[in-house]
Amino acid sequence: MSDESRVVSASRDVAAPVDVIFELIADPSQHPRWDGNDNLAEAPPGQRVRRAGEVFTMTLLNDAVRENHVEEFDEGRLIAWRPSELGGTPPGHLWRWELESLDDGHTRVTHTYDWSRLTDEKRLVRARATTADWLQASVDRLAGLAERG
User: Fold this and answer.
1) Which DSSP letter does residue 103 get?
2) What is this structure's pTM?
3) Of 10, 49, 64, 129, which is the most exposed, with the fewest CB atoms less than 10 Å away?
4) What is the pLDDT of residue 145?
């Protein structure tokens, strides 16, 4: 399988300013509100991401806790993380959000799932099942929240 097929993404222009959208992504406690995978239960408050190198935790619906290692960060523009089991090394998949301000009230949002470096055989089935439609569901839910203010 080529690396190109191991990267899926979805985009949408959202009628909300970039800072409103970014805040919903940079604050992990907001993630379950817009998760299109219907996989996230909760994240403790007070984990707002501010730089690469930080780690935030998330509890999944199956009660598993994941650490999310922030690899890319540019305030108001870009955030990406690699999840891992609690205390573990990230197995290689990456979730990325990119925001492009179109004007004061509109933002292009792109959500990408990149599993080109995934090494954990147990996760390959789930990775292959993560489609652009799932990503689009997250983008659409995020847009709904942002557009409502």
Assistant:
1) E
2) 0.94
3) 129
4) 97
